[in-house]
Amino acid sequence: MNTNYIDTGLTNGTTYYYVVSAMRAGCESTNSLEASATPACVPPPAPVASYNSPLYAGMTLYLTASSVPGASYVWTGPNGFISTNQNPVIQQVGEDAAGQYSVVAIINGCVSEPGIIHVVIHPPVRLSFQFAAERFVLDWPFGTLLTASNIAGPWYTVEETLRSYTGTVSAPQQFFRVKLQ
């Protein structure tokens, strides 16, 4: 005779004791056995870590961990960074925030292997300006060039520019800025 018993709601790492005995015709056998079991921890899969790249000093760092159903998360990183958000955000990062970030998924006390990402933070973006013969040239390493006729905006994207823009001095007052995100 083969009998199974499933005990739900157990805690990993805790030892549980059971007494196993047989019954025949309403009488318990005198050959009872004591058994113990300790549920094993089955770690969840490691989350995949990523971030918004390229990233320049002064921008917002968006860390993301892939979803692991039923998990909570713990991130660690440079400068003592710790977060329990699945997708933490660090505003106005400096170059000192560059380095290795890791995230683990935790389910019922079982911890996954870490998902690791190396965050690179480039120096702040510099917009350079050159003036020659009623023309000016703006150059920048990354981002979208925006323009407005008033410093308060509204701001509009300068179409068909990648990293350089040439304009004329005879145009009405115009303001420029580079949008990084």
Fold and architecture overview:
The chain is mainly beta. Among the domains are: 49-119, Immunoglobulins (Immunoglobulin-like); 128-179, no CATH class. It has strands at 16-20, 23-24, 27-28, 33-37, 49-51, 61-65, 72-77, 81-83, 89-90, 99-107, 110-111, 115-119, 128-132, 135-139, 144-148, 156-157, 164-168, 175-179. The strands form six sheets. Strands 7, 8, 10, 11 and 12 form a five-stranded antiparallel beta sheet that branches.
CATH topology of the domain at 49-119, by name, is: Immunoglobulin-like
How much β-strand is present in the residues?
35-45%
The largest pleated sheet is described as: 5 strands, antiparallel
Number of strands: 18
Run of helices and strands: EEEEEEEEEEEEEEEEEE
Poorly predicted tracts of residues? none
| Discrete helix count | 0
Quick one: overall form?
rod-shaped
The assigned CATH architecture of the domain at 49-119 is: Sandwich
Mean pLDDT: 85
Radius of gyration: 30 Å
The percentage helix is under 10%
Terminal CA distance: 68 Å
Query: In the CATH hierarchy, what is the superfamily of the domain at 49-119?
Result: Immunoglobulins
CATH class of the domain at 49-119 reads: Mainly Beta
Helical/strand content category: mainly beta
Short synopsis of the structure:
With 181 residues, the chain is mainly beta. The chain contains no helices and 18 strands. Among the domains are: 49-119, Sandwich (Immunoglobulin-like), CATH 2.60.40.10; 128-179, no CATH class.
